């Protein structure tokens, strides 16, 4: 089986970035995660997940959307590992 790495950009409700980041780390256990300021005080959370090709990234994306305080989720990059 091939492994896939996917990097998500996660937009949290204003002022809740640290709380959302902590929840994602505890609940979903990403391979890597960082917060990035994109301008004008707007911060996004970038989280990378590595999974078996059969699983599909849509399940992870759905789980991210269900985290309290998450406003929007988008796939930034996806590639075979």
Shape: globular
Low-pLDDT runs = none
Based on the coordinates given, report the CATH architecture: 2-Layer Sandwich
Radius of gyration, whole Å: 12 Å
- Write down how many β-strands occur, each being a DSSP E stretch of 2 or more residues: 4
Looking at CATH, the homologous superfamily is ACT-like. Chain A, domain 2
Specify the biggest β-sheet. Answer: 4 strands, antiparallel
Summarize the helices and strands and which ones pair or pack.
Elements: E1 3-12, H1 17-28, E2 32-39, E3 42-52, H2 57-65, E4 70-80
Antiparallel strand pairs: 1-3, 1-4, 2-3
Q: In words, what does this structure look like?
A:
The chain has 81 residues and is α+β, with helices and mostly antiparallel strands. It has one domain: Alpha-Beta Plaits. The chain has two helices and four strands; from the N terminus they run E-H-E-E-H-E. The chain has helices at residues 17-28, 57-65; strands at residues 3-12, 32-39, 42-52, 70-80. The chain has a four-stranded antiparallel sheet with strand order 2-3-1-4, with helices on one face. Strand 2 (32-39) and strand 3 (42-52) form a beta hairpin. It is globular and about 40 Å long.
Question: What is the gist of this entry?
Answer:
The chain has two helices and four strands; from the N terminus they run βαββαβ. It has helices at 17-28, 57-65, and strands at residues 3-12, 32-39, 42-52, 70-80. The protein is globular, with a radius of gyration of 12 Å.
